[in-house]
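From the shared-data thread, chain only:
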Amino acid sequence: MGSSLKKYLSVFLIVLVIGVLAACNSKESTTDQKSGDSSEKKEEQVVEFWTIALQPTFNDYFKDVIAKFEEDNPGVKIDWKDFPYDAVQNKLLTSIASGNAPGVVNLNTSMANQMGTKDALVDFNAELSDEEKAAYFEGIYSSTEIDGKANALPWYTGLPVLFINKDLVEKAGLDPNNPPTTKKELNEWGKTIKDKTGAYGYVFTMESRSILEEGYQLLSDDFSKAAFNTGEVKDYIKGNIDLMKAGVIPKDVLNYDKQVQLFGSEQVGMILSSASFINQIKTASPDVYEKMVAVPSPVGDAGIRFSNTMNLVVPAKTKNKDAAVDFAVYVSNAENQLAFSKVASTLPSTVESAKDAFFSKNDGSIEGQALTASAGSLDKATDFYIGIAAASDVNASITKHLQNIYLNEADIDAELSAAEKEVNDIIAKNK
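Structure, as tokens:
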């Protein structure tokens, strides 16, 4: 072999080796880069978590929950932000429109369903197994289901209880250990209290949901028109008017402070309210506080109790949807809901949480009675929502006309007809 050929082959082999080494280095570099990108990508999986008015009171609780979730989910970071109640929905709409939707957001049922009807939220029916869905009380979970889609996971909730002035009911010859369990029995107790003591029997809720509680419909089955302008509903309203005329239920009770005043001055024997009512009476009338008894709220013919639930939603356009769904499920699981109930004095929407001894260890105090009474009512709970995007407007219209009937003695036929027209117009405008 000639020297020139040997020299050529030597140069060729050197170039070949350099090329191979360069390729290897390139692959290693690419692999490292991909590995680095993957690692970097995990670090960038930030899930914004928005709550309503929970900071700073519950900072320790949420820091612990977030730390445990992040430990179990390497590469996912939770960025917790808290907003006032009246700001969160507009801020959410703005963030979605700008392409910067958060990951998990705390909304009430009405807000969640309004967003859901715009296809703006993840459908949890598509994300959860039947077993996972069964972890929540059916009536509360289904409160955000519209057209087969579940717009939210239920989180913490609250239920009204019946507060009774023990002295007044005993003076009326009634047994507070055997309280009324239905609205019909409540009416009978109210009449007896009025007859025997001169005090009002109980405070009545003059809202549209009172019609639903008795098993009457507000809208047709397909939500296409009003369905409350019926003879049965008119008879129900007339019955309430008769109770007002008889002094069984007071008329002017829309103001919460007025309700506290009536109960605190022993002018009314019973009131349906939330646990926060206890502290109001304790401050305003310590002597009446000592006479209070709390029992489960009586049910109407529909056999339901309306809860007031806070939910967790995941915007459909959030950047890290899977991580956000996982976090929403984690925050609302039975263990974490139970822990939150203990620090926040709320009720859980999860079945297993409600079985804990914390909710049944009635210590005899009015606070203990209220907790046990409300927790024991969760199986009959559902959140109040009519089922359409314009639900708030529909509810406001019906309530306005009902209150005009009860407070101003307006004509029932005229008011229900006016409400029917308004509701049908609202539905037509929002189709």
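Residues 1-42 have pLDDT under 50 and may be disordered.
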